[in-house]
UniProtKB/TrEMBL annotation:
GO terms for biological process: carbohydrate catabolic process; cell wall macromolecule catabolic process; peptidoglycan catabolic process. Residues 271-291 are annotated as: Disordered. This is GH25 family lysozyme. One of its GO terms (molecular function) is lysozyme activity. PANTHER family: GLYCOSYL HYDROLASE FAMILY 25 (PTHR34135:SF1), LYSOZYME (PTHR34135). Residues 213-281 form the SH3b domain. InterPro entries: GH (IPR017853), Glyco_hydro_25 (IPR002053), SH3-like_bac-type (IPR003646). SMART domains: SH3b (SM00287). Signal peptide: none annotated. Belongs to the glycosyl hydrolase 25 family.
Amino acid sequence: MIRPMIIDISEWQRPDQIDYPLLAQQIDHVIIRVQYGSAYCDKFYQTHLQRFQELGVPTAVYAWVRGINHEDMAQEARIFFERAKIFRPSFYWLDVEEQSMTDMRGGVEVFRQTLKQLSGGKIGVYIAHHLYRSFNLAVENFDALWLPSYGNNSGSYHGVQPTVNKNYDLHQYTSNGRLSGYSGTLDLNRLTDRKPLNFFTNKIQDFAAWGIAETGSFTLQTAVYLRTAPTVHAKSIALLQAGQTIYYDAFSHEQGHVWIRQKRADGTYGYLATGPSDGKKRTAPSWGRFN
């Protein structure tokens, strides 16, 4: 399972169908819909926010944007802020998935500016992949960019990435995700290596919670990159050579590989892929020997 695990939910995920304590154990951040335009308030956003905050899960909020002119966009921003402010969300997101006015670039910028003035918080934008180029939003003005790209939408991440802009910070990689604590499907998201989790949560990540704790050593039989995060897209720390041994304190099946974690002298962690995985078990022999 990818960690940090970030989900986004709305009223489609009913509270009476969620085991909040169990689901909370598997996620690091949740983004909750507050409204669909200014006229429609999400039925369960308050319950979702209260329950996850009680369980210590950092919470952000999003609004589906539907303003029909600049003034309407500003009004949507004001209503969004008023509905969410009591929960002190760690991040605000604008969800732009429909053309509600001709000047979407200008309208969304008015929404962003109004919300920024009211909240003083960080604001990101989610843009439908097929509308990205035609909307031509001023993404450079936002604090973060969130893009969807599903591939075969199997529920797991298999390396498919958004193509409309390479400089994105959050990737929604499936709408068919499954996690214990909820029997239905979930939108699952992964971070890129551009911003750490605490940029979005205002909370220092608990690295000790990653993966499954296990101590041991691994001797490589081929050269493999040691990386800053458990993904092949993360920055390389070093290229370890065949015959080298790495000591690890945890492992996890995620992003197509079995990863082990090395605690480094400066207090940070390095992550090494040890062979392919389907997310639950190895699908081929490991690239070395466990000792």
